[in-house]
What does this fold into?
Amino acid sequence: MSTRLQPELSGQLMKYGIGDWNTCYHCGTCTAVCPLSENGFLFPRKKIRLMQMGLKDELESSVEPWLCYYCGQCTTTCPRDAKPGELMMSLRRYLTSKYDWTGLSRRFYTSEIWELAYIIVFAILVIISYLFILPSMGFVLDKTLTPEGGVRVNSFAPVSIMEPFDWIMAVIVASLLISNILRMYYKIIWKNSPSTVSLWIHIREFWRLIFNFAFQPKFNKCDDKRYWLSHWLLMSGYTIMFIVIVVYLPWFQTEKIFPVWHPQRLLGYYATFGLLFGLFIAIYGRILKKDVKFRFSHISDWLFLVMLTLTVITGILIHIFRVNGLPEATHISYIAHMAILVPMILIEVPFSKWSHLAYRPFAVYFQQLKKNAVPKKHKT
Ligand code: SF4
Ligand code: SF4
It folds into this structure.
């Protein structure tokens, strides 16, 4: 492990969050109260020490920031008001920018102007596509209604075009995320490591990745279990919506209006409920600022929440207008929905707030690989 010191590290980290971590005098209270401090993982005092000493490589090879779910207990009990929980949050943003090879993540996290500019450019491109490009190909709003009285959505947003577009977008996003996860793996497991991990250990421990993505058990270690539920509902709603839109669009975007108990509608209603519930808790908490985990919000937190809320609201509007036979209103809300959804997926998923959903379970997996690593044999 390199011991190259970077005294400017503390200043760099402060661009990713709020806190003056140099006030920490290492009393250890935060480590004592943190529900995750076990088995040699000292949350979060050790990270503050690394940051103060400017040990950049050690910090970048840490998994701990991803295991923290920001319960806020450390921040509440810190006698120096050093906001250790906020340090963990800032470290997650910092690490996201370090895994990302394009440099866009760093740019978005350190400049809201850049992030907003990218969002606006993608939104404009989407609007131009629906108002000019698709109509020039013959896909215009058909105001006649279906036999059930619904709107002919496929007349202006044909599945034959939308489905390949969704797949292209998914492949781009997945490629970016996977390449960043490989860089994360390199930093945590490979770079300067004195140990090796066998292929069998990689295979044997893989279930942890799936399990932690699906159930987020570390989150449940925090005292307030309600937040686990709201976060899980939000995450599951988002994942279901992403899968049905990208993988099953011909099944999901139909002109036929199915009865309310049809799986297509039930799945859509569940995902909408999960998203709305999780968003309500997160936004309400951030407005009230009573709970410490909602007290300090980075601009990237707000952008993600606002974009996701607008995506859900416009999605609900599309559904209401479509089943009630209102073609113009459906058309406008569909364009608005896509103008928010596309930039959100292209920016938030690989480069910003959303990416933590991928990095967290991988961190748990990599942590387990590290635990099972064996020292490298040196040639004599
Ligand atoms: S962050 Fe606060 S609680 Fe934790 S070691 Fe430093 S001074 Fe103590
Ligand atoms: S926010 Fe909670 S889980 Fe995270 S380091 Fe602090 S006490 Fe531990």
